[in-house]
Amino acid sequence: MTEPLTGRNVLVTRPPGQSDALKRLIEAEGGTALVLPMIETIRTEDWDPLKKRAAEKKWDWVIFTSANAAAYFSELLAEVPLSVPETCRTAAVGKKTAEAVRKRGWPNPLLPRVSDGDGLADLLQSRVRPGDSVLFPKSVRARSVIADVLQREGAYVHELPLYTTAAAYQNREQLLSWIQEGTIDLLTFTSPSAVKAFAHFVRNMPKKDWQGLDTVSIGSITDNEAAKHGFVSRRTAEPSTVEGIVRTLTAF
User: Fold this and answer.
1) pTM for the full predicted model
2) Are 209 and 63 spatial neighbours (Cβ–Cβ below 8 Å)?
3) What is 53-76 written as a DSSP string?
4) Nearest residue to 231 via CA among 249, 200, 207, 201
5) Alpha helix (H) ranges present in 82-156?
6) C-alpha angle 232/144/82, rounded to 5°?
7) How far is it, in rounded angstroms, from Cα 129 to Cα 7?
8) pLDDT reported for residue 38
9) Structural domains of the chain, with CATH
10) Where on the phi/psi map is residue 246: left (φ > 0), alpha (ψ -120 to 50), or beta?
11) The sheet that has 156-167: what strands, in order across it?
């Protein structure tokens, strides 16, 4: 029996170190995964104020919206040094982020029904109490929806912008070459930043060369970014996981 992605090349745009699971699932369905990160993560320059902020008081919650946030937060704790109190509660945006939290021995995180920032904000709105101290390790580019919701509920939110993302310019020429050669059959995005970087790289190409690529985004926020940049053949993964991405790819 022929697998549904047999003979199809799928572009995987995830950052280095985060593409293995998606690549493996694509190959299990018969596809060829073309791994070409559109972005890379970079530690922000001055962590000293962030270390001080993290050490100032006892935390009731630590909130994670990406595996990167968990990794950089682990680095920060090691440098202070600090540990996550056993009494502290944690929450994660999705299963992969939760795995990154559990791997470091931190309290088992709560998970929202919908794996995106809005879903996590909805979950926390009913769990976080007025006066709770919430630590929020994050990207500089992270949306403010979670912090805004919790602050309105009376929580004290301490944001820690530990890292940022930048376009992976070293991969631009390979991307343009694959598009020109018609190598890419399917395209995947797992963050709005990856969409923005892709659009930046192809800005001087004829739109007809890339706008019609069948595209799967991990969630509605990423899909909205793809729509904004002119992708016309789009679907959103259901559920918002790498497994959901591959399931949606097989439906094209």
Assistant:
1) 0.86
2) no
3) HHHSS--SEEEESSHHHHHHHHHH
4) 207
5) 95-103, 117-125, 145-152
6) 125
7) 52
8) 98
9) 9-38+168-249 (3.40.50.10090), 42-165 (3.40.50.10090)
10) alpha
11) 39-43, 156-167, 133-139, 61-64, 89-92
Question: pLDDT, tens digit, for every residue of 74-94?
Answer: 999 999 999 988 899 999 999
CA-only gyration radius of the chain, Å: 19
Taking the C-alpha atoms of residue 98 and residue 74, their distance in angstroms, rounded to an integer, is 14
Read off the pLDDT of residues 106-150 as tens digits, 9 standing for 90 and up: 999 999 998 888 999 999 999 999 999 999 999 998 889 999 999
> How long, in residues, is the chain?
252
Cβ–Cβ under 8 Å, residues 132 and 91: no
Distances (CA, A) of 209 to 26, 127, 176, 183, 228: 24, 47, 10, 11, 17
Q: Is the pLDDT reported for residue 8 higher than 90? A: yes
- Tokens representing residue 145 in the block: 């929806």
What is the Cα–Cα distance from 40 to 61, expressed in whole angstroms? 28
Q: Which two tokens stand for residue 79?
A: 């440098």
Residue the block writes with tokens 């259901």: 238
- How far apart CA 165 and CA 15 sit, in angstroms, is 10
- Give the E-state strand segments of the chain in sequence order: 9-12, 32-35, 39-43, 61-64, 89-92, 133-139, 156-167, 186-189, 214-217, 234-236
Residue 182 burial (CB count, 10 A) = 9
List the helix and strand counts (H, then E) for the chain: 10, 10
Residue 190 phi, psi (nearest 5): -120, 10
With tokens 């470091």, the residue in question is 104
